[in-house]
Amino acid sequence: MISNKTISVFEHQRLYVGEEGFKQVHLDALLKLNEYHDGNYFEPIAKGIKFNQYVGVIQVDGLTIEIHPKADKEDSDTKWKGVLLKMLQACGKLKAESSGAAHVKRQHLNLLEVYFELYLLEVESLVRKGLIKNYRKQTQNTKALKGKLEFAGHIRKNIVHKERFYTMHQVYDSNHFLHQVLQKALIIVTQFTSGTRLQDLANRVQLNFPEVDQKTITEKQLNEVRLNRKSVGYANALELARLIILNYSPDISSGKEKMLSLLFDMNELWETYVLKQLQKACLGTDIKVSGQESKSFWGGNSLRPDVVLRKGSQTFIIDTKWKRPKNNTASVSDLRQMYAYCRFWDAEKAMLLYPGDPRENSFKSYLTDDYILDKENHSAIEHQCKMGFVSVLEGGKLDEVLGEKVLSLLVL
Length: 412
What we know:
This protein has helices at 24-36, 77-80, 83-90, 99-106, 111-129, 151-157, 177-192, 199-208, 219-223, 235-246, 266-281, 332-345, 402-409; strands at residues 5-10, 14-16, 42-45, 48-51, 54-60, 63-68, 134-142, 148-149, 165-173, 248-249, 259-265, 287-291, 295-298, 301-303, 307-311, 314-320, 349-355, 364-365, 370-373, 378-381, 384-390, 393-394, 397-398. Strands 12-15-16-17-21-18 form a 6-stranded mixed sheet, with helices on both faces. By secondary structure, it is an alpha+beta fold. Helix 4 packs antiparallel against helix 5 and helix 7 (177-192) crosses helix 10. Helices cover 34% and strands 27% of the residues.
């Protein structure tokens, strides 16, 4: 069995060559990965890297690096291990009932294995139910004339073989683009599960999957996939296949091993998690919750607050921040941003929401003269802003009533 070395780190932590089996070849591969992603994942430092807000798993050259979320560097490491998996489940990015997730709860977090197992089980289920067939055009030499005769190709290929016909005709089989995508992801998964607990499952699924053409799959092609009533059951498997294919970097490592990274931006994950919790808390009430509303601001630019809540004629804005504010004070740029949201959405209150222990903070008014104009008169309005803090964890688990706590911070 192949043994992979595992390193566990946290976001914003530093990792140097020589620590825990981290070698120069690994550093070179990670720096190349970072270049491909516009330098978002890490910050290069002398003989090492400093992780940014991206969390997840990277596997390269026999080394697995697990990057865990951590809202505050003062918190204990054990408090935050395993939180990523739970947040992905809560945000709908991972099936909560998956056997892979259950396995990880019993052992250590290896997000790649969870997604690999999910994908293999999805494809196995499709094979068991029966894979769909589609019509496709095929051009080849045949011994019978069927379809359309391609004259140029026929003359070029069959000057000697007068008994053959070079034709274009329709074929009804399993060798179509959807299966080519699934097969591409299967090949990647098989490479990375060699020597692991998933090897037998990967080999079994690969053996039962029909032979299809192996083609290069691009992001543009994946974006253009449209499912119909016949293929709608492929949605979950294709979503996972897309995730695997687009995060696979076959030429990024200087060694023979390939690299696969599965990283999530904690800022986006925190925003999605808060939005989901608020939607759950407001279910059945007169409060409407929406995320990522957009309004034009200047030229091609737009304003887009994370969460907008409406109750009757009142509007409230929430902007989520996955960080701890320096000196417990909001930055000037964040306050200006919230003021702009208030003006464009005619919101009475706006809140910057941070992860952290709850603390007493009251709304404070902006010291500006703002007015609402109508046909007959104008009236003064008051915009207020505050910093809000909510604990992500409660008793070692994700806080199940986080949405209610956020609403109480808004005095709703």
